């Protein structure tokens, strides 16, 4: 043998033994990864990481800048180094989720065959000794013609308490096997599948999802949304994301609890934005977005997020009285709209002042609250002649020289108005993962209820002749959960087999 | 025809031959049905003279405590009468608790009805007024969930005694509610969704079952032979943690050693400014020393079987109970009788309070930070000069702290009770397997309930905020508790970890639920800040 060959042989041998060693390592690693205990440890790590994320304020939360400013420099350094300010997006948190997913998959693969065996291959027979060793067991003696006839009665007893019986014979002995809810053995695996579906949906959301904000003012429109991300120390940066359509705001409304109160969240029942979506592909679509009632369009979802509470009026009610005398009429005019009087004169609602004030010769509003409401109105005569003036509410005197002045031959008074803010801010969400997550939610709900409110209950009965008409029946049974309920069901089977109305099985 | 010839039943354990039919659910049905009827009567014929929801809640609290006493007595001196009184006391408690919830619903409805009809507005749907708006409401529902679960489990005669543990816990939650105060607040519009009753209803049931699961886990450990000395160490450490954290860590901090301050109130809102409550600080220090000594002595006993340490530990445990009860009594009486509070406010808090004050007035955080210590202190003292007379302290100043002190004392009380004739108590409990089975069942239902809580919360968040998961502290809190129950379920099937370790998981998981329920609202910021 040449030196080269020898060396090669040694290398091969070493490689082989090394291979064995590495296979051992891989096996051990796989064994660890697929063990339930390791899963529990992972869960605890996940719990700890989440607790850290709860206790340390996260970067995307309101007030983070203040929180960050109050930390000591060493705290900042430590927390930043550990990624605690944004722990849910750190590599180690994601790695933890990934390993946990692997653990779920591998441990399920490990234990599934046994569970499947319990469902697919029913154990029809059992020795008397084995039956006596079960969680529940009982022995009674019955009188009957044949073993089959007695087994039939036991079957009927099983059926009467909701167990599906099956009679079989082996080595001259007769067995009754009855069960319910065998599928329950697979429930835990279905729960894990549901969890993995939710994880997958979450992954899709994290990779492909976008959420932004869109400010809409009546008459205005938007074709992009603003996504906010947070940098070092919670400094926000804004990113404009273009939308494949344009959203035009046609109307906004504020449904107040107390109509005399302010436009504040606590005085609001709901608020809504009417939009017209202009899409080059699909044409125009009208839609209404209310709080807690989002609107879906082409994979985008529009939500009410907040509102700008500057005091405005959606519509005003004017009392219009001819200057030279005559009956006053009431007229409702929408924001930026107009309404006509009987004589063909139209009134246009130009502007609203919540707190009308004169600043020198200029008119304006002193605040954004409804302290002294007034509306600028343009009167257009049928002849085409126009005049601009103001309609005041009850506190007209505060308006100074403008109060009570007639506009285009009419005395105007602001009788009423519908309060509304200046603009609404919508959240726009595009989330291809949400649907997957919802499927996971449905699966999880169904499977959890299936697991915890049902159980796989099994009862065996061995029928043995004792000579003549006497038969000894050995019952045994077990369940995977709901032991207390099973105990009662087992007792009912034994009692029912002993004959309905029998005085009962003596307890020992 | 056949007949049974002879019976040779082998190990058919403790079968209850009595029909366990609907009759066993009678207390549950009576409590629920009765409260619905009472709420309807309130709606139809109610008015100012009708019992308020607050009064009904107090009746519920009293019944829970009374029932717990009967159940406890029954454990030590088994008597059918005690058991019955305990069961019917619990039934009455649940009835009052549920009626309080129903009457509160009607009251909230009528509160807005007047305003809306006067202005010609449409009446919103009735579910807007389900009392699930703040922590008071949730506490009422949490206690109700626990009470209902206790009644449902009471259909198994073996487990009626559980009320001895679960009802005092429910009562503690109602005590907390009492301190929070029962004002009905306007609902933030984002909460006016049909998901709210679904989500919060799920929460109260899941939390209620979790509370019972916690009680079962304690019973399991007791039955399993965990020494009461170990339990005393656990409760003493819990008490020490409470004493150490109340009043912003002032009791044991070197600068403020031996002081306890109650938050001052301006009207109904509590200010971040504490007024020193006389005597309480030193009593807390005394309790702390006693509890620390208990821990040391019992650790010594457990490590070296030192009987003298055990004897002294037991004595000091009882003394620490007296001291803790004394703290609560003195705190309550001092807070109630304290008149002028400004002179009791330590000026060391001025700077922090000044900063808070200026921020409340709309100043930017960075502007405030730029101001000097002196400017902040001046802002605080100016505020106190003008508004000092209007400040006060009350039992509502620090609801969670007060309830935590009571809970700590209650924990010690239970260990003292358990150390009395422990062996006899153990014997009167059902078998370990049965307790384990019930622990598994309640933990499983809690796990499923928390999953539903997370799911309904996620769906609601996706309808209202545009994301189904945002790592908000309350969301994470519920997730953490859920994961821990998940761990419990897996520990139970892990070789070598079954039994006691599983019970510890059930205990920790419930503590995490309580943390989610209170800690997140009181300690951590976030979207769920209202409840």
* Strands of chain A, total number: 22
Overall pLDDT level of chain A:
87
Shape of chain A: elongated
Q: What number of domains of chain B?
A: 3
Q: How many beta-strand segments of chain B?
A: 4
**Considering DSSP H and I runs of 4 or more, what fraction of the residues of chain A is helical?**
25-40%
Strand order of the largest sheet of chain A: 1-22-21-3-2
Largest sheet of chain A: 5 strands, antiparallel
In total, the number of domains of chain A comes to 4
- In terms of quaternary structure, what is this? heterodimer
- Rg calc of chain A: 39 Å
Strand-residue proportion of chain A: 35-45%
Spatial gap, N to C terminus of chain A: 81 Å
- Per the principal axes of the C-alpha atoms, what is the gross shape of chain B? globular
Which structural class should the secondary elements of chain A be placed in?
alpha+beta
Spans of chain A of at least 5 consecutive residues whose pLDDT stays below 50 are 1-20, 500-508
The chain pair forming the largest interface, with residue counts per chain, is: A-B, 86 and 76 residues
**Unreliable segments of 5+ consecutive residues of chain B:** 1-19, 526-531
N-to-C order of helices and strands of chain B: EHHHHHHHEEHHHHHEHHHHH
Compute the number of helices of chain B. 17
The overall average pLDDT of chain B, rounded, is 89
């Amino acid at each position: 043998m040449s030196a080269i060959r020898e060396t090669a042989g040694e290398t091969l041998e070493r490689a082989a033994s090394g291979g064995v060693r590495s296979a051992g390592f891989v096996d051990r690693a796989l064994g660890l990864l697929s063990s339930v205990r390791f899963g529990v440890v992972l869960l605890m790590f996940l719990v700890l990481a989440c607790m850290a994320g709860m206790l340390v304020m996260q970067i995307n939360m309101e007030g983070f800048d203040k929180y960050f400013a109050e930390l000591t420099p060493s705290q900042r350094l430590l927390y930043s180094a550990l990624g605690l300010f944004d722990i849910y997006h750190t590599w180690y948190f994601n790695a933890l989720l990934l390993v946990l997913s692997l653990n779920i998959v591998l441990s399920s693969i490990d234990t599934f065959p046994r569970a499947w065996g319990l469902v697919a291959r029913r154990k029809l027979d059992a020795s008397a000794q084995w039956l006596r060793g079960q969680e529940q067991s009982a022995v009674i003696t019955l009188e009957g013609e044949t073993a089959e006839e007695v087994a039939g009665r036991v079957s009927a007893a099983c059926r009467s308490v909701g167990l599906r019986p099956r009679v079989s014979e082996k080595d001259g002995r007769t067995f009754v096997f009855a069960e319910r809810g065998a599928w329950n053995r697979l429930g835990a695996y279905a729960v894990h599948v549901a969890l993995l579906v939710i994880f997958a949906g979450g992954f899709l959301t994290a990779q492909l999802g976008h959420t932004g904000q869109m400010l809409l003012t009546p008459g205005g429109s938007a074709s992009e949304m603003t996504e906010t991300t947070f940098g070092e120390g919670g400094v926000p940066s804004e990113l404009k994301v273009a939308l494949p359509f344009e959203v035009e705001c046609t109307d906004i409304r504020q449904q107040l609890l107390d109509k005399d109160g302010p436009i504040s969240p606590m005085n609001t029942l709901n608020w809504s934005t009417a939009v017209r979506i202009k899409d080059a592909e699909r044409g125009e679509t009208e839609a209404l977005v209310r709080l807690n009632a989002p609107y879906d369009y082409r994979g985008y979802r529009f939500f009410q997020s907040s509102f700008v509470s500057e005091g405005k009026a959606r519509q005003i009610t004017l009392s219009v009285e001819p200057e030279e005398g005559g009956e006053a009429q009431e007229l409702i005019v929408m924001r930026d709209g107009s309404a006509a009087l009987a004589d063909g004169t139209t009134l246009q609602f130009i502007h609203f002042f919540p707190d009308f004030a004169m600043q020198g010769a200029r008119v304006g509003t002193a605040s954004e609250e409804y302290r002294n409401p007034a509306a600028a109105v343009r009167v257009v005569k049928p002849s085409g002649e126009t005049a601009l003036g103001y309609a005041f509410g009850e506190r007209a005197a505060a308006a100074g020289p403008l109060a009570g002045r007639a506009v285009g031959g009419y005395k105007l008074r602001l009788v009423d108005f519908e309060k509304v803010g200046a603009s609404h801010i919508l959240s726009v969400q595009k989330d291809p993962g949400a649907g997957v997550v919802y499927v996971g939610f449905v699966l999880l709900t169904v499977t959890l209820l299936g697991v915890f409110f049902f159980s796989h209950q099994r009862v065996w009965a061995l029928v043995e002749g004792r000579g003549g008409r006497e038969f000894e029946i050995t019952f045994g049974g077990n369940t995977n959960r709901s032991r207390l309920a099973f105990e009662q069901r087992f007792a009912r089977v034994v009692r029912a087999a002993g004959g309905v109305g029998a005085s009962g099985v003596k307890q020992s | 025809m056949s007949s049974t010839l002879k019976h040779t039943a082998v190990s058919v354990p403790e079968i209850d031959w009595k029909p366990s039919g609907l009759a066993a659910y009678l207390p549950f049905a009576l409590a629920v049905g009765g409260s619905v009827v009472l709420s309807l009567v309130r709606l139809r014929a109610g008015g100012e003279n009708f019992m308020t929801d607050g009064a009904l809640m107090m009746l519920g609290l009293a019944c829970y405590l009374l029932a717990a006493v009967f159940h406890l007595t029954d454990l030590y001196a088994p008597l059918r009468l005690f058991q019955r009184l305990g069961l019917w006391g619990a039934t009455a408690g649940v009835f009052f608790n549920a009626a309080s919830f129903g009457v509160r619903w009607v009251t909230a409805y009528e509160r807005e009805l007047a305003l809306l009809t006067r202005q010609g507005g449409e009446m919103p749907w009735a579910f807007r007024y389900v009392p699930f708006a703040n922590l008071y409401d949730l506490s009422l529902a949490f206690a109700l969930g626990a009470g209902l679960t206790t009644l449902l489990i009471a259909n198994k005669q073996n487990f009626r005694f559980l009320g001895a543990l679960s009802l005092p816990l429910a009562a503690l939650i109602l005590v907390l509610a009492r301190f929070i105060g029962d004002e009905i607040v306007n609902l933030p519009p984002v909460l006016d969704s049909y998901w709210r009753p679904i989500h919060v209803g799920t929460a109260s049931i899941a939390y209620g079952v979790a509370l019972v699961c916690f009680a079962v886990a304690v019973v399991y450990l007791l039955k399993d032979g965990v020494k009461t000395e170990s339990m005393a160490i656990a409760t003493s450490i819990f008490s020490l943690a409470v004493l150490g954290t109340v009043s912003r860590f002032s009791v044991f901090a070197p600068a403020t050693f031996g002081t306890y301050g109650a938050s001052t109130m301006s009207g109904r809102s509590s200010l971040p400014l504490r007024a020193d409550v006389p005597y309480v600080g030193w009593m807390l220090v005394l309790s702390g020393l006693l509890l620390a000594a208990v821990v040391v002595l019992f650790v010594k006993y457990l490590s070296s079987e030192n009987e003298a340490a055990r004897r002294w530990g037991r004595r000091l445990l009882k003394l620490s109970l007296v001291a803790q009860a004394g703290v609560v009594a003195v705190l309550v009486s001092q807070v109630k009788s304290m008149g002028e509070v400004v002179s009791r406010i330590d000026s060391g808090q001025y700077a922090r309070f000044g900063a808070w004050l200026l921020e409340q007035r709309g100043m930017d955080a960075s502007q405030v930070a730029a101001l000097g210590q002196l400017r902040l202190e001046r802002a605080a003292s100016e505020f106190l000069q003008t508004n000092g007379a209007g400040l006060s302290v009350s039992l509502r100043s620090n609801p969670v702290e007060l309830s935590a002190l009571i809970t700590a004392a209650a924990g010690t009380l239970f260990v003292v009770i358990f150390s009395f004739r422990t062996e006899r108590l153990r014997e009167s409990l059902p078998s370990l397997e049965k307790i384990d089975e019930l622990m598994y069942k309640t933990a499983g239902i809690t796990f499923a309930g928390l999953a539903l809580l997370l799911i309904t919360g996620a769906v609601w968040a996706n309808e209202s905020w545009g994301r189904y998961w945002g790592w908000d502290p309350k969301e994470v809190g519920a997730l953490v508790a859920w994961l821990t129950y998940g761990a419990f379920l897996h520990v139970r099937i892990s070789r070598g970890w079954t039994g006691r370790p599983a019970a510890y998981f059930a205990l920790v998981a419930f503590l995490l639920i309580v943390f989610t329920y209170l800690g997140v609202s009181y300690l951590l910021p976030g979207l769920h800040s209202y409840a």
